[in-house]
Amino acid sequence: MKIKISVTLLLSALMLNQSAWAAQQLTVWEDIKKSDGIKTAIADFQKQFGVEVKVQEMPFAQQIEKLRLDGPAGIGPDVLVIPNDQLGSAVVQGLLAPLKIDAVEQSAYTPSAMAAFTQNSVVYGVPKAVETLVLIYNKDLLPSPLKTLEEYRAFSQKQREAKQYGLLAKFDQIYYSWGVMAPMGSYIFGKDAKGAINTQDIGLNTPGSVEAVTYLKRFFSEGLLPGGIMGDNGLNAIDSLFTEKKAAAVINGPWAFQPYQAAGINYGVAPLPLLPNGKPMSSFLGV
């Protein structure tokens, strides 16, 4: 799963060092072509605190690696942007300092977004953006989104009779299949009595997990998904079928909106459908 399509951004702060305060200047690393979006916030901060803010653009997925080199040399940033899946290694290496954020400030964000940058009850970052999977449909092929995944399965069967596709999704990757597995009783790691992750308790082979995977397997065995979507290039195949108007709906993320719009697709966005057990599909969260 490539970072550019599977994670979202999160603003993570370093402890402001004494030299930064003495110079009355902060250095901020922002993602490429994203600094325009924080100009107003920077202006407000400078006016309120009288501290100059210097912004440097750098690919967010590379910031931790560069911090490993620049930090010890004393030329690293005071604030940087990283995806939440880099938090663990960054904390272990001592690259990030804890943030003091009270409950009132944290309440401005969803609990799941804050949890994405919290480790062992210590907060290391504040959410900048959050991404999840959604259902995207072509309004010209499917005027209104369906309610359940089973309805999409039946719709896909009819579409295949017309040599078209109904719903496409990368169900061969856990990033996408987890939306079915979790609500049906699967979990990755359990938790101990203190609420910490217990890596010895793995919940990928629960009865619910088996039931979920067995159900998803029908989309493949019934020919409702093309073989070309399997493997690393599967998302490209899905995007091609959707933009060529050969598929009515896909499960994808907000990173697909711009390409679909550029292709002239009259698309709509809807919540993920309900499962056979009545629960809605879920999604991993990228922050």
Provide keyphrases for this structure:
287 residues; alpha+beta; D-Maltodextrin-Binding Protein, domain 2; four-stranded mixed sheet; three-stranded antiparallel sheet; 12 helices; 33% helix; disordered N terminus
Secondary structure layout plus pairing:
Blueprint lengths: L2 H4 L3 E4 L4 H6 L1 E6 L8 H11 L2 E6 L5 H8 L8 E4 L4 H6 L10 H4 L4 H5 L2 E2 L2 E2 L1 E3 L6 E5 L10 H13 L3 E4 L5 H8 L5 E5 L5 E7 L3 H15 L12 H10 L3 E6 L4 H6 L4 E4 L17
Parallel strand pairs: 2-3, 9-12
Antiparallel strand pairs: 1-4, 1-7, 5-6, 8-12, 8-13, 10-11
Question: Would you kindly provide a written description of the structure presented here, covering whatever features stand out?
Answer:
The protein has 287 residues and is an alpha+beta fold. The protein folds into two domains: 25-123, D-Maltodextrin-Binding Protein, domain 2 (3-Layer(aba) Sandwich), CATH 3.40.190; 131-286, 3-Layer(aba) Sandwich (D-Maltodextrin-Binding Protein, domain 2), CATH 3.40.190.10. Helices cover 33% and strands 20% of the residues. It contains twelve helices and 13 strands. The chain has helices at residues 3-6, 18-23, 39-49, 63-70, 87-92, 103-106, 111-115, 149-161, 174-181, 207-221, 234-243, 257-262, and strands spanning 10-13, 25-30, 52-57, 79-82, 118-119, 122-123, 125-127, 134-138, 165-168, 187-191, 197-203, 247-252, 267-270. The strands form five sheets. The protein has a four-stranded mixed beta sheet. A three-stranded antiparallel beta sheet has the order 4-1-7, with no helix packed on it. A two-stranded parallel ribbon has the order 2-3. The two termini are 15 Å apart. This is Maltodextrin-binding protein.
